[in-house]
Design brief:
By secondary structure, the protein is of the alpha/beta class. The chain has 21 helices and 30 strands. The radius of gyration is 28 Å and the shape is globular.
């Protein structure tokens, strides 16, 4: 008898094991990895739903003790064998539970039966009770939606009919009257530069060989990486394969999406978690059937059911938005690499500012590398670094340097546009009483409250807010002052200098409405505004022909953060935002900083990634950080500080036991840099490993042995920050 390995309650985050079941002869032709089944479970033998994750001939359990599969639910698998293998890779690498990994891959509308019709199997042998016969005949006459009221009200009877083999789930076709039609005319290919041709040749030849390879496409901003992507996609699609194109944030890449849709002959679908349920269902069904060959999206797109996958492209591979900061803390770039390896296909990692690790792997031969050194249309913008210490000593009390104000004036006079960047929203990030020194802090988090123009102080971690009275709650003083600048203040103050300028602001506060991002960008592109003020949302993926001046208000906001990647983040952000200037006309960039000699700022001002990399890896090697080690942040959280502290002590003892067999370096335990977030106290231990396999083994060992229920353990593998 055939045996199947079944994950019970497969989307329950606490599920972490599978169970073996025998397959009766009459079901053997129906069972398949990725299909759902009904089985008896537990001592009570209750009927539950499970997912087949493996089909095999043997088992470690005595066959006499195995129960049998009762029924196969699906006509076709809801996930592919490849996706199941990916789920197990994710579970192992990130030391999470199987239910968490499967929960990333199986979308909620599948588990909620929103895309299925219940259909009846024709049979001549029908001996049923009247109630069952009535339901069967009704479904035979007209299939019903699996999540309909009728199906829910008759759940037990319908399950009974399933167990008798009289019903099956089938995918239903979803249509939309306003769905975008594919244009019949596809724009031709553009001629490539020699560097672009070399990159395309490497990608297509790797695809033809059917091998897994990481290809780093390293090109300055505006060097034509997107054109390489598109021509590689066209080649792969012409061979009958599909492509996943990952982008950092879907709302910020409308130009990329439209460009791909115009240039690709196959249907292109967008796939992300903010789509409506029906939109996401349609995209999922088109990909699963093979009707669509290209999927574009952020993190969640890597889990899409792309059929016969041939290529994965990660645009702006350095972006932190690819890493989830909530459990499970997976990095979509690493997951993309896992999926590429499973499928034996190339993965292209594109960036003007690649991560230090990836560039190191390229230099040492672990990755292939293609370099695009020249902009397609124009030279890189001229960059001016302003020392704000000197500005203050010279009597300038403004947020803006005199150079920046002068350059803005020039642009306004000739009708060209300006982008002002500050990676801090709100009006003022700190409010202090000058009498007693009281700082307004969030009651839920160890973070200062930011003043906003609506008269409220807000926490940018948990969204707590309180009304701002201007009176110190500690001593009653009226001498309360707002310090520092956010985007709201920049917007206000720029209007005082340039009263006739039309100003737009784009940050989290102005983009809460649906389509707000698109509206702001559309207005700026159509020149309904002269100046765009914003946070890192405006630093990437944007191309405006008349944008010739970029001003960085404070380059030090990330530089001074207590994290080993702060220099890298600073360089990347400055380079990316500077790259918005002069895409079609000669551009200028003004960077304001109190640290003009810092190597990350100097390198960014010179558009010189290699010099930044050389300085950064010297420091990383000295202190033993990636790429010279692998790190895991073990975080224990609880609403009770004592429980959190006890939990981290348990983790520390478990890690100490591991040092007897593995060489690892333990830093901690200690309070996390941000000790309290959303009323949860946080302690952590940072651990460095020499080898990736050691890291995976120890992380999974700690996960298995940690059994303290009063505090949650979060295992953050390869953290992007340690805050």
């Amino acid at each position: 008898m055939m045996i199947v390995e079944v994950c019970i309650n497969y989307q329950d985050a606490n599920v972490d094991r599978t169970f073996d079941y025998l397959v009766p002869g009459h079901l053997e032709e129906l069972v398949e990895v990725g299909k759902r089944v009904y089985v008896n479970f537990g001592v009570s033998n209750r009927v539950v739903e499970g997912l087949i994750v493996n089909v095999k001939e043997d088992t470690n359990v005595e066959r006499e003790k195995l129960k049998c599969v009762l029924a196969v639910i699906d006509k076709i698998p809801i996930v592919s064998d490849e996706q199941i293998r990916l789920a197990f890779s994710i579970k192992n690498y990130y030391a999470i539970k199987l239910g968490q990994a499967l929960g990333l891959i199986v979308p909620p509308f599948v588990s909620n039966n929103e895309i299925y019709m219940i259909c009846a199997q024709q049979t001549s042998d029908l001996t049923l009770e009247n109630e069952l016969k009535e339901i069967y005949n009704r479904i035979l006459k007209r299939p019903v939606s699996a999540n309909s009221r009728f199906a829910k009200e008759n759940k037990d009877k319908i399950m009974n009919l399933f167990l008798k083999g009289l019903l099956k789930f089938e995918l239903k076709l979803l249509k939309s009257s306003n769905e975008e039609k594919k244009d019949t005319l596809v724009e031709p290919q553009y001629s490539l530069t020699e560097d672009q041709k070399k990159a395309l040749e490497l990608i297509t030849s790797t695809f033809d060989k059917g091998i897994y390879k990481n290809i780093l496409l390293f090109g300055v901003t505006g060097s034509g990486k997107t054109e390489v992507y598109i021509q590689a996609m066209r080649y792969v699609i012409s061979k009958g394969k599909s492509v996943i194109l990952m982008v950092p944030e879907i709302s910020l890449t409308p130009q990329m999406i439209q460009n791909v849709k115009r240039r690709i002959e196959s249907e292109v679908v967008v796939y992300h978690s903010k789509m409506s349920s029906s939109q996401r269902q349609r995209a999922w069904l088109k990909l699963k059937s093979g009707e669509a060959k290209v999927v574009i999206g952020p993190r969640s797109a890597i889990f899409a059911p792309a059929k016969e996958l041939g290529l994965i492209i990660v645009d702006e591979e350095h972006e932190t938005s690819y890493k989830s900061e909530k459990s499970p803390r997976v990095n979509a770039v690493e997951v993309a690499q896992m999926r590429a390896k499973i499928n034996s296909i190339p993965i292209v990692l594109g960036s003007a500012t690649p991560t230090v690790e990836h560039f190191y792997y390229a230099l040492t031969g672990k990755y292939a590398i293609c370099t695009l050194r020249e902009r397609i249309n124009k030279a890189l913008p001229e960059v001016f670094v302003v020392d704000m210490k000197k500005e203050i000593l010279d009597g300038n009390k403004s947020i803006f340097s005199r150079l920046l104000l002068s350059e803005i004036e020039k642009n306004l006079q000739i009708g060209e546009q300006v982008l002002l960047f500050l990676n801090r929203r709100g009006y003022s990030p700190i409010v202090i009483c000058r009498e007693c020194g009281y700082v307004y802090m969030c009651k839920n988090c160890s973070i200062s409250l930011t003043y906003h123009k609506d008269g409220y102080l807000r926490c940018h971690y948990c969204n707590y807010k309180q009304e701002y009275t201007g009176i110190c709650p500690k001593c009653g003083s009226k001498y309360v002052r707002q310090y520092g600048s956010g985007t709201q203040r920049i917007e206000d103050e720029i209007k005082t200098y340039f009263k006739d300028a039309r100003v737009l602001r784009m940050d989290k506060d102005t983009t809460t409405r649906k389509d707000a991002v698109e509206e702001i960008l559309s207005k700026f592109k159509s020149k309904e505004a002269d100046i765009l003020v914003g946070t890192q949302m405006i630093a990437k993926g944007l191309h405006f022909p008349d944008l010739t001046l970029v001003g960085v208000i404070n380059a030090d906001t990330i530089l001074n953060m207590p994290d080993f990647r702060s220099k890298e983040r600073t360089f990347q952000l400055l380079t990316q935002v500077a790259g918005r200037a002069g895409r079609e006309k000669q551009g200028r960039v003004v960077i304001q900083t109190f640290n003009p000699d810092d190597y990350s700022i100097v390198a960014a001002s010179n558009h010189d990634y290699e010099s930044f990399f050389r300085e950064e890896v010297k420091i990383r090697k000295t202190i033993g950080y990636p790429p010279y080690s692998y790190i895991v942040n073990f975080i224990v959280v609880s609403q009770n500080e004592g429980y959190a502290k006890k939990g981290i002590e348990i983790v520390y003892r478990l890690l100490e036991e591991c040092t007897k067999i593995v060489n690892l370096k333990i830093y901690g335990p200690s309070e996390s840099p941000i000790f309290k977030v959303e009323n949860q106290y946080r302690y952590h231990i940072l651990v460095k490993f020499e080898k990736a396999l050691q890291m995976i083994d120890i992380a999974n060992t700690i996960k298995e042995r940690y059994n303290y229920n009063n505090a949650e353990l979060i295992i953050d593998v390869n953290p992007l920050n340690t805050l």
